[in-house]
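Long-time lurker, first post.

We've been arguing in lab meeting about whether zinc ion would sit comfortably in this protein at all. Half the group thinks yes, half thinks no, and nobody has a model to point at. So I'm putting the question to the forum: if I give you the sequence and the SMILES, can you give me back a predicted structure of the complex? Inputs are below. Any interpretation is welcome too.
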Amino acid sequence: MEDFDADREDVLKRAAAAGVEAVLVPIDIASERSRRIALGLAAAHGEIRTAAGLHPHQAKAWTPAMADALSGLAGDGSIVAVGEIGLDYHYDLSPRDDQRRAFAAQLALAESLGLPVLIHSRLAGADIRAAIDAEKFSRGGILHCFTEDGPFASAMLDRGFLISFSGILTFPSAERLRRVAAGVPLDRLLIETDAPYLAPVPYRGRVKRNEPAFAAATLRFLAGLRGLDPADLAAVLRRNYDGFLTARSAGSGTAPAAV
Ligand SMILES: [Zn+2]
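Top reply:
Settle the argument with this. Predicted structure of the protein with zinc ion, as tokens:
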């Protein structure tokens, strides 16, 4: 994102210094700029992998040509998933019919490419689940920046998904979300930045921009919630992420990516 144009390399250095070992950058398939910058980062940094998809906010721009572009991009060695894709009924920046159409088309594409998906869901759990089932989508993936309820989390765990929590987990108002996070099996947990948004406490309100280094605060918070040493939880999360990469490789028949 443009927020990082001025200091992207410094941001990555700070992330590494904070213990961030793996970064997954979603590409906006509708943006040539997004594609160029993300693939450039992945080429230059071994710890960076990418995904590509059309975000639900932009779903009204979906065309069959984008499916071809996505299929072409999937050949790039850094691409490990289709995403972000999904439904956002909070902002409704694209009509819901368009969102469902773009989501279904990209689920079908991911299934045919043998790739997992990164799902963005805001107030849309029932329709996310319905689409996964209607498309018979079997590759799993990550529910990114999870904010939905416990029953939806359970339904998606049953469908093989990992659940990723952002800095929202640390917000004073997020009591319901903390109860969900406390119940997710350890081998299905991930954390993320969702930069430049959603800086965790204690950065929230003090910085203009969230960045990957701050994920260490989310890690410490989640470790406290789960009664684990942060280093032990970090090892668990790393294993989960590596498993996500390996499952993708097994599904598509290519060699595991080195991270
Ligand atoms: Zn998202």
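For your lab meeting: The mean pLDDT is 94. Residues 230-252 form the longest helix (23 residues). Whichever side wins, do check it experimentally.
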